[in-house]
Each structure stands twice: as C-alpha cells, then as structure tokens.
Write a structure and sequence with these properties.
Blueprint: H1 18-25, H2 34-43, H3 58-61, E1 68-72, E2 75-78, E3 83-86, H4 89-92, H5 101-113, H6 122-134, E4 140-144, H7 147-162, E5 166-170, E6 194-195, E7 198-199, E8 216-219, H8 224-232, E9 238-244, H9 259-269, E10 273-278, H10 289-293, E11 300-303, E12 314-318, H11 320-323, H12 341-383, E13 387-392, E14 395-400, H13 409-415, H14 418-428, E15 433-434, E16 443-444, H15 451-465
Parallel strand pairs: 3-15, 5-8, 5-9, 9-10, 10-11
Antiparallel strand pairs: 1-2, 2-3, 4-12, 6-7, 11-12, 13-14, 14-16
Helix pairs in contact: 1-15, 5-12, 6-12, 8-9, 12-15
C-alpha cells in the first residue's frame, strides 16, 4: 500500500467465491438511467449544473449526473431504482453510512421538539464536551456549519492573535471556497505550475478579491526544505501554516515520514500557528483524527463533513490561549445556524456510535479498507493495468499511472490519467458500484460497509476491466 497501514493484506480474490459475487454484480442489469436524464432536462434553466455544487454536475459524469433518491447502510438508490454500493458517502460526510438508525432517531427527536433556537443549549455543551474528550488539544470548541466556515474563522483568528498578515498553504490542498486560500488547488497542466522552488500562484476562480492572495504563500507539500526556505524568507510575517493531515484533494496522498512533525517544529520555532484542517480526515482516520494518528499537537484544528453525519455541522477547536480571542470584542465569529440544535443531536449520536466499544468502528473501517485496497491491487495486477491504490486507513483512491506512488500535487498533475479513471468509474455504475468519477477526489469506507460489499466491488472491477 502506498501510504501507511497497520493491517495485514487480505486473502487473494482468487480464493473468494467469485461465482457468488458475479451473481451479485448481475443484479442491476439491465441498467438504465432514463429517469435521471429526464430529471436533468428539467434542471436546465433552473439549476446550474443540475445541483448546488459544481462537483455534482455533468462535468464529472459526462452527459448528465445520476440522480439519487434514497440510501440505507452501504447502499444508495437512484431515480431509476438502480442499487449501488456507495464508496463516496457524500464526499466523506457519512462515516456511519446512510440513515443509521441512531442518527435518524436523534434527528427526529430534535425536529419534533424544535429544530433550532439560536440560543445557548445544553446539547451544544454536551457535544463540545464530547469533542474535548475525543480530540487532543480541544481545550476550547466553537461550532460552525461547514469546513469552509471553520477554516475562515481559523484564518481570521490566527491573524488576530499573532498580528501577522500572511498565511502559508500547500499546493493541491483545498481548504474551502473562500478567497484567501482558493489558489493552486485544482488540477492543472504540469507546465503551468512553474518551478518547485518558485511555484506560480494559480487562482481557482474568477471573482476573487484582487488582493486576497497577496498574503498567501504557496509551497509544494512533502518538501521540508522548501517549507523551511519559505518561512525564512518571510520572517515575522506568517500568522499560520495550514495543512491537511493527508492530502485529500488529489486522490489520497499521505504525508512523508516525519513531515508533519517537522512542519510543527518549524512553525513553533518561528512563532507561527499550526492549523490542521481535518475537514476531510476528522472522525475517519482515528477518533482524534490525523493529530492523534500522527501524534501532532496543532494550535487550531478544523472539522466538518463527518462530524454531522449528513447534517451541516463543523467545528473549530484548539488551545485555550488562542481560541479565547473569539470572545466579544476580539476576533468576530457569528452565525445564526452555528451549533444548530438538530445538527448537535445528529453529531452526538454520531460520536456515540463512532467511539462505542473502545472505538470499534475505526478498527472495522481500517480492516474493510485493507481488504478492499489489497483486492483492487490484485485485480489491476491480474489485468495488467497500470494503476495503483493509495490509502490511509478508510480513505483510498485508485490512480491510473505507471508511477509506483504519487507523492504531491505536481506528481498528480503530471502522471495521473484522470480520463482513464473516469471511464473506469462510469463503467462500474451499471455493475452496482458508485463513487465519484473525479480522480482528484477519493473514496471512503464507512461503518456500514462489509465484506460482501468488498466482494461485489472487486468482482465489478474485474468485469469492468474486461480482457484488458
């Protein structure tokens, strides 16, 4: 496995009951998405790209996206009645799977007694106390609605506390769609990136504030010497270094051995706050996220996605001496829906399930992921396909490349065949397997996934690759 693993490889696919799994694969045939097409036609002139986020639209799917109607456990069902094993899980927002009964019950309880009050509530306190117990360094907690909002608050807080203007971020990392950090996070032609020693800042959007990126420093990831050089070139100016614990916006790219630990040392030595963005990795890699897994001690940590188990819940946590600057008259952070009551009920149920039986859910997802990823590697090897599988625990991605590993944004832009990945994923849909067709995203193992899901997926992958 490219990346880190703590489990032994699963048995070879050749020893599985392939006949049984192939029968499962055939259950979705004949396959049609005619109703999805009809729904897509209705969106024209109403919704942009058929939804409220460009990542869900036809750019990734071809002519039109598949419209989903319901989910249960590890399965998702579309408008035409097709059933899929769901390895996308709402871009990682569903660590328990779809419609987990305890989360459903919690949401129903909250809805029946008042969805949101925008006042102080006991449930908000209870979830914050749970986070303090689960997450290292969560001396104070502040809730928001999305990872983007939590990161925005973290950046403002870092600048306010340090009195410094600049933020250092890494190529290929995505920290939300706000202006200050919306740079060099989309896949680009390798020739457009500039030299590693002097990366070109590439804005990800039109309409950005003209000066928003003036105080944003871009550095290639997994390169300590270039990080050290960037810090030394801006003495006393950098408020914070922000990083994902695992690069999750270019498939799955793990940190090099000791990289995050050294980054933390450099930040502390220069009076720079260390912000760990766990919007993607939080409550999926370990109970305490990447900071627990890699034994880190960041100043601020942002969470989103998996915290609300399908509802918009995010959090900013960190050291008290930094977080306390959010008090009235300091660094402003408002939000009518921050800590929404319904979201807090869902988050409480989610955290209870995730940490039950001494965190058994994490052991399960790591085990299922190891079996699936090893099986996929066997399939690609058997079929003679140039593809690798990179994963850290339950986060994984297939990368069509002849390279032994993809180690940073520049590797991804230069060596990954995104068209081949899209073609492969779309060929899995008729075989009952669903994930994002974008190679820059990744797949997720949830608590609801089981060994039968792995068998079905491996059989479908082999069938999709045909005689290649």
């Amino acid at each position: 496995m490219e990346g880190r693993t703590h489990s032994s490889a699963p048995p070879s696919i050749a020893r599985r009951d392939v006949a049984r799994t192939m029968k499962l694969v055939e259950t979705n045939l004949p396959f049609t998405t005619a109703k999805s097409n009809q729904l897509y036609q209705r969106t024209l002139g109403v919704l942009i790209e058929a939804s409220s986020s460009s990542s869900r639209g036809p750019a990734n799917f071809g002519e039109y996206p598949v419209f989903m109607e319901r989910g249960r456990g590890s399965r998702i069902f579309d408008a035409d009645g097709n059933q899929y094993i769901d390895w996308m899980m709402a871009f990682g927002a569903l660590p328990l799977g779809h419609a987990h009964p305890e989360v459903v019950e919690a949401i129903a309880e909250a809805a029946s007694t008042g969805a949101h009050f925008a006042t102080a509530t006991a449930i908000e306190l209870e979830v914050a106390e749970m986070l303090q117990k689960i997450v290292p360094n969560a001396e104070r907690v502040r809730f928001a609605n999305t990872g983007t909002e939590a990161v925005m608050a973290a950046i403002r807080l870092a600048r306010g506390v340090t009195g410094r203007p600049k933020i250092l971020k890494f190529e290929g990392h995505y920290h939300g769609w706000h202006d200050d950090l919306l740079v060099s996070s989309n896949v680009m032609p390798a020739a457009a990136l500039g030299l590693r020693t002097d990366p070109i800042k590439i804005p990800d959007s039109s309409g950005l504030n003209r000066t928003a990126l003036d105080d944003t420093i871009i550095v290639p990831w997994n390169d300590i010497e270039l990080l050290r050089r960037a810090v030394e070139s801006h003495p006393g100016q950098i408020a914070a270094i922000i990083t994902e614990g695992i690069m999750a916006n270019m498939g799955v790219i793990p940190p090099a051995e000791g990289y995050l630990e050294t980054l933390q040392i450099i930040a502390r030595a220069n009076g720079i706050l260390f912000i760990l963005d766990e919007t993607v990795t939080g409550f999926r890699i370990a109970p305490g996220g990447c900071q627990q897994h890699y034994k880190l001690s960041p100043d601020l940590v942002t969470f989103g996605k998996a915290l609300g188990c399908g509802l918009p819940v995010a959090a900013l946590v960190g050291r008290a001496e930094v977080m306390d600057a959010l008090q009235w008259g300091g660094v402003l952070h408002y939000g009518t829906h921050n800590g929404s009551r319904m979201g807090m009920f869902a988050a409480r149920a989610n955290l209870r399930v995730l940490t039950r039986d001494n965190n058994a859910s994490f052991r399960h997802t790591w085990k299922i992921a190891d079996r699936l990823c090893s099986g996929l590697r066997d399939v690609f090897k058997k079929k003679g396909v140039s593809a690798i599988v990179q994963n850290v625990g339950p986060m994984f991605q297939i990368l069509f490349t002849d390279r032994p590993a993809i180690r940073d944004y520049r590797d991804f832009c230069r060596y990954v065949d995104r068209a081949a990945f899209q073609k492969f994923v779309l060929s899995l849909f008729p075989l009952g397997v669903y994930t994002s067709p974008s190679a820059a995203l990744h797949s997720i193992v949830a608590l609801a996934h089981n060994e039968e899901d792995v068998d079905l997926t491996l059989a479908a992958a082999e069938k999709a690759l045909g005689s290649s």
